[in-house]
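Prompt: For my understanding, could you write out one protein's sequence and backbone structure tokens?
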Amino acid sequence: MDVLSLVASFLAGALTIYLISFFMKPGENKTQKAADANIASLFDQLWQTHERLLNEMKQDIDNPDFKFHREFYVQKKGWGWGRWGLHRQGPCIAYFLEDHSDLQPLLDTLAANGLISHTGEAGKSSTKYQLSEKLVTLLRGKNTR
């Protein structure tokens, strides 16, 4: 294969990739925007019914100590970290079942919509979750009184 045909093949491949990406983006953007709007609408509904808990989550992620934290734990008060196999260094975010009667239903809804994911290990008494970047963005963007 000579150099000219190699360059021509490369340019034809690059042009093909460019054209595919150029024509595919408008549909993908509309679909993504619709999905984002649905999630934002769901978040607004959840905020109305779970305002106290979501506001606490917002305050936690707005706290400079937790600026980059995405993990949080759910447990009962009085459960010691070491006693249940949790060995955590430094500050962490935790929500207690006794403080929020609506905690588990909210977590189930957030997980079902991809806004959090369960990352805990089986057999632990405390449950570990991870916030999605989408939820962090929604929480940080929420104006509170």
Observations:
- The chain has a mean pLDDT of 83.
- Residues 3-49 form the longest helix (47 residues).
